[in-house]
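Exercise 7. Given the encoded structure of a 469-residue chain, write a plausible sequence.
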């Protein structure tokens, strides 16, 4: 006879046992993070295959399920570990996991403010902190999204609505040739065909050239197009480049364009000493994409869109229906009025709790350390004749390639990456910059400190030396 399935509402003792089992599992994992390899995909196919299975008719004990999860977690890039320097890391501070636990276990509804007014206030307050940290004035508003891609989408829809109205045919969007592809994806989702998208050239440091923007706007205007939006970068993914915001703002204002900063990666560096000067102009932008799951070290799944004129968000997103009349508070806005979503998780808590628990000073300190580590890494590699550096660090990304004849660098670059990663202490990624293969690191995890960056330098120097003979 088969065992009865656990009820959907387990007894308190069983609930407690399950909670303890999960907590132990997580804490064990965190305790071993430092010793875990920077990535491990050996034999992952069999682990993966073990999860291709039919829906079970009957439940299983949590311990057995956690035991199955362990190898699935282990066989992956260790994106939470100190050696993760690939793409754009975040790390995932634990306080956010605790917040998610509380938020999902209590399962309150924050899509409309009337259903949990004080919880909605927590989220609104946390978002207003982000506005303040970016230097936006009173009247600015924002939303929390699943990440930069969705923030870009809502930003483009908002800019479209404000500058072009219902008929947006002929609207043109400007950005640099280094801009993250989520911007063009968002533009296409927002109804702009590829022909309306205008990538612009960048200078020697990969920053948008303002004169090229001015020229493109004039040219498009003369052809009857409707330039309405420019998306400057505050930290590109390739090299961490910051576009010249003051000049872009001046040109955009002159032509009536909306300025949306993609500060998904770079925006939080405004919190570091000297950050306000470094990111000068961000406080003047019409909207800002900012990813707490990057620069605030939160776990994947939390982005933000901040808008200078909060009313613009409302005008672009608000709909209504009689079946929400009981919770639609007179004169009060819910997140559903500002964003594409209605029902969703109470994600404000995963921002509020870490900031309350640790205080902003702890984040400032971390961000300053990441900038210093990237500079240190750059100095070390620049001093080695095996490497060609692609730029001085503008933030915490450093891109470089082997100093060798073009064909040799192209051939040996991927091999260098493979060998360094194979040591499993650090994990780097590559890109192509102006058609040339480049390796890069991004120092952004709160768990990455000088020792790992030294490991990365040492591995690169040794392997490059061996490859170039
Ligand atoms: C500069 C930049 N913008 C936008 C994005 C997209 O953000 P997300 O992956 O959260 O959608 C990224 C992702 O790495 C990024 O680096």
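Solution.
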């Amino acid at each position: 006879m088969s065992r009865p399935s656990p009820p959907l509402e387990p007894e308190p003792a069983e609930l407690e046992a399950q909670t303890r089992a999960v907590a132990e599992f997580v804490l064990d994992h965190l305790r071993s993070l430092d010793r875990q390899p920077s990535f491990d995909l050996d034999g992952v196919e069999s682990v993966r295959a073990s999860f291709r299975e039919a829906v079970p008719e009957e439940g299983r004990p949590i311990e057995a399920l956690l035991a199955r999860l362990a190898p699935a977690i282990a066989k992956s890039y260790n994106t939470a570990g100190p050696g993760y320097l690939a793409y754009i890391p975040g790390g995932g501070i634990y306080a956010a996991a605790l917040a998610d636990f509380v938020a999902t276990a209590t399962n309150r509804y924050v899509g409309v403010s009337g259903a949990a007014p004080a919880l909605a206030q927590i989220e609104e307050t946390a978002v207003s902190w982000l506005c303040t940290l970016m230097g936006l004035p009173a009247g600015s508003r924002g939303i929390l999204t699943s990440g930069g891609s969705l923030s870009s989408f809502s930003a483009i829809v908002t800019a479209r609505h404000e500058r072009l109205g219902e008929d947006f045919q002929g609207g043109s969007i400007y950005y640099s040739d280094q801009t993250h592809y989520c911007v063009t994806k968002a533009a296409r989702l927002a109804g702009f065909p590829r022909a309306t998208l205008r990538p612009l050239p960048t200078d020697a440091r990969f920053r948008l050239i303002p004169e090229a923007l001015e020229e493109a706007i004039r040219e498009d205007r003369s052809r009857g197009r409707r330039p309405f939006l420019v998306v400057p970068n505050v930290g590109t993914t390739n090299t961490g480049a910051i576009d010249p915001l003051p000049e872009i703002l001046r040109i955009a204002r002159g032509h009536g364009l909306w300025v949306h900063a993609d500060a998904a990666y770079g925006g939080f560096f405004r919190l570091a000493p000297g950050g306000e000067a470094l990111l000068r102009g961000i406080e003047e932008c019409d909207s800002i994409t900012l990813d707490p799951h990057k620069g605030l070290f939160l776990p994947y799944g939390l982005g933000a869109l901040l808008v200078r004129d909060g009313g613009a968000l409302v005008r672009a997103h608000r709909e209504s229906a009689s079946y929400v009349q009981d919770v639609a508070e007179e004169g009060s806005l819910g997140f559903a009025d500002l964003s594409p979503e209605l029902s969703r998780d109470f994600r404000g808590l995963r921002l509020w709790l870490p900031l309350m628990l640790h205080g902003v000073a702890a984040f400032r300190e971390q961000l300053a350390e990441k900038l210093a580590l990237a500079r240190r890494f750059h100095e070390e590699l620049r001093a080695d004749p095996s490497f060609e550096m692609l730029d001085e660090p503008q933030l915490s990304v450093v891109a470089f390639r082997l100093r060798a004849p073009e064909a040799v660098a192209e051939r040996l670059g991927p091999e260098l990456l493979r060998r360094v990663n194979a040591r499993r202490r650090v994990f780097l990624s590559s890109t192509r910059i102006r058609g040339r293969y480049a390796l890069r690191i991004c120092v952004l995890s709160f768990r990455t400190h000088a020792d790992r960056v030294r490991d990365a330098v040492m591995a690169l120097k040794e392997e490059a030396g061996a490859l170039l003979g």
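Remark. The mean pLDDT is 96. Students should compare their own answers with the one above.
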